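Q: Convert this sequence to structure tokens.
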Amino acid sequence: MDKINTEYLQRCIDTLEKSYQLIKTVEPDSIEYEMYRNSLVKGFEITIEQSGKLLKKALEPYFPSKSAIDSLYFKDIFRYGAKHGLIDTNTVERWFKYRENRNNTAHDYGVKFALETLLLIDDFLNDAKNLKKVIDNE
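A:
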């Protein structure tokens, strides 16, 4: 199997990290805060999606065919990641929490959602970076 290209995932992580740094430097009622919040929410969503796609690619050698892995949903991908020793079960549970939070973005881009997302960002950034390392080594 060819090496999986994780450059875009790294760019997503870097962008999310920068948005997170910047949001902490401005007043919560400022337009800048809203800009960084929007960037943070979108960066969170994109990083989750990209992480799932790349983990799916990393799992391809463990499946008999591409169609077998293509039928997996997000949670299945992470469960198989744990089953094959790419990530541990505690990490899988956190990814499920991230995904649940991300699914809420379709309904609520408001302050409450942003605050919930901000509470997850430190762990999420660590998990995304660790997942990238795992995928880079596959």
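The mean pLDDT is 89.
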